[in-house]
Amino acid sequence: MTNRIDAALTVSPAGETALDVRRATVIYRNGHLALKQATFAIPRGVIAGLVGVNGSGKSTLFKSIMGFITLASGEITVMGHPPAKALKRHLVSYVPQSEEVDWNFPVLAEDVVMMGRYGHMGMMRIPRQADKDAVECALERVAMGGLRKRQIGELSGGQRKRVFLARAIAQDGQLILLDEPFTGVDLKTEKQIVTLLRGLRDEGRTILVSTHNLGSVPTFCDMTVLVKGTVMACGPTQEIFTRTNIERAFDGALHQLSWDDNVLAPEAG
């Protein structure tokens, strides 16, 4: 596979790198090597797809970026800051997988979004008008304002995803991490989410999306990061997302994908 690490480390024309991962290695307490010498960089204002099979290190990478896991070696910076400082400065927002959320917990949709404002509040976490305005704006942006008083567990899968995306928007993070945002949603909701992500990118936010939906990656991801225990390749999607690279990353042919001369053929519709 063509090594794209040097290209990945090239910053944007403005000289701003949103996420810089250098030789990051993670070893769990049981001795499992989850991530080895991972190196890549993402400039500000792009959507990057984090692509790899289950167990390839995508979740480990997300946890490392958020500072939840200590690196055995290497370095990660977000907007020039280490993860702990980036979180303290509210630079990182996270949209979790559905499996990570207790949908039976009695909480309103608007309260979930307000959680994104906690870092902006004082110790008593009493919302100010600015926090309320941010929540209202975020809910309207994801078209969930009319369901703000609904229990989160009563919402559909797509509506839940939009609520958590609204939380990320309300938090005002500059780097937004989304873990499998298209799992369990229909095509209409997927397109709505992609439209929202493009809008955030155009505002200068940086989006890193972990996804198994390979067919959609070339349609909205400016960059692709291929992960398989390390970062195998990183760069512009049109260069990285080839049949050869994807089959190596996934240990074989993916028959559900249609290729045209080593490039993924456009999806119908």
From TrEMBL:
Query: Keywords on this record?
Result: ATP-binding, Nucleotide-binding, Plasmid, Transport
The record's annotation in InterPro entries points to: AAA+_ATPase, ABC_transporter-like_ATP-bd, ABC_transporter-like_CS, Metal_Ion_Import_ABC, P-loop_NTPase
ABC transporter domain location is 16-253
Q: Which GO terms describe its molecular function?
A: ATP binding; ATP hydrolysis activity
Instruction: Tell me which domain of life the UniProt entry assigns to the organism this sequence originates from.
Output: Bacteria
**Gene3D superfamilies the UniProt entry points to:** P-loop containing nucleotide triphosphate hydrolases (3.40.50.300)
Question: PANTHER family, alphabetically?
Answer: IRON TRANSPORT SYSTEM ATP-BINDING PROTEIN HI_0361-RELATED, METAL TRANSPORT SYSTEM ATP-BINDING PROTEIN TM_0124-RELATED
Please state which protein family the record places this protein in. Belongs to the ABC transporter superfamily.
Protein name in UniProt:
Iron ABC transporter ATP-binding component
- Taxonomic placement: Bacteria, Pseudomonadati, Pseudomonadota, Gammaproteobacteria, Enterobacterales
